Amino acid sequence: NGAVPGEQGKQEKSVKRGNWGNQIEFVLTSVGYAVGLGNVWRFPYLCYRNGGGAFMFPYFIMLVFCGIPLFFMELSFGQFASQGCLGVWRVSPMFKGVGYGMMVVSTYIGIYYNVVICIAFYYFFVSMTRVLPWTYCSNPWNTPDCVGVLDGNLSSRVALNISQLLNTTQKRTSPSEEYWRRYVLNLSDDIGNLGEVRLPLLGCLGVSWVVVFLCLIKGVKSSGKVVYFTATFPYVVLTILFVRGITLEGAVTGIMYYLTPQWDKILNAKVWGDAASQIFYSLGCAWGGLITMASYNKFNNNCYRDSIIISITNCATSVYAGFVIFSILGFM
After folding, report:
1. Residue range 279-305: mean pLDDT, rounded
2. Where exactly are the transmembrane stretches of this chain (predicted)?
3. Rounded Cα gap, residues 65 and 69, in angstroms
């Protein structure tokens, strides 16, 4: 029953700390913890940089030999001890610093990831207009170098002189980039000039922290219910984007680049390093979150099954997101 000498028998349920309402809540929470921007943007970017389909070979090798074993170890470690990433190291006090390191990393991630959520909230709110503000170059924050696809103003500004045409092409920026840098962030000239506080972003950041607070107000009891939406809705959005992407002209070209392996890249050590870092980044191993979430499981839960399901779901999401991104890249 998991008992050790000098310790009372392990209980099926943790009376003091509480448990997940059911096993689906734990699986959905872990999937939501693992699946994120790393799957949607970082994985397709690494495929693009490291030989298309050839990158998937070292990626799945690292998943089998590094990702799943470490994922399973952390789940079983937290589930056995029923402690978070700090208390669990009473098993070997010499490594308690590892727990503090996990806590510091998770704190930094919580702070910067909420900024990402804040930006998502901001774009969600400002997109509720008939004309998106980053569509044209006719806004007060745009520069003469701004060239929009829908503006058609490049030919009107540029003479037929070839040197002028090349110089303008090298300097030109898109309206979406200028909207982001010059209006949303309002970047200052240098690090010595702090600039102003962007009140719209500050308000969205406050909203994101309130949402996090409401999700965690009752611990696993409240967060376990929230994940029914937060862990499944991204798949709805990805599917909508996928259907839209494959109907665009040139989508097949992008998907073929994604699937066609460039085997000469396999011999590059950097490709294998990128595959390993992507596995650790995506699964969230060694950050303390897996140990903490698994600590709310029942003692006899089948965490081996859960680790296989969550790891494969995470990597399958990355591959699926690759089809979405590369279909749009093919169109572009």
Report:
1. 94
2. 26-44, 56-77, 98-125, 232-259, 279-296, 308-331
3. 7
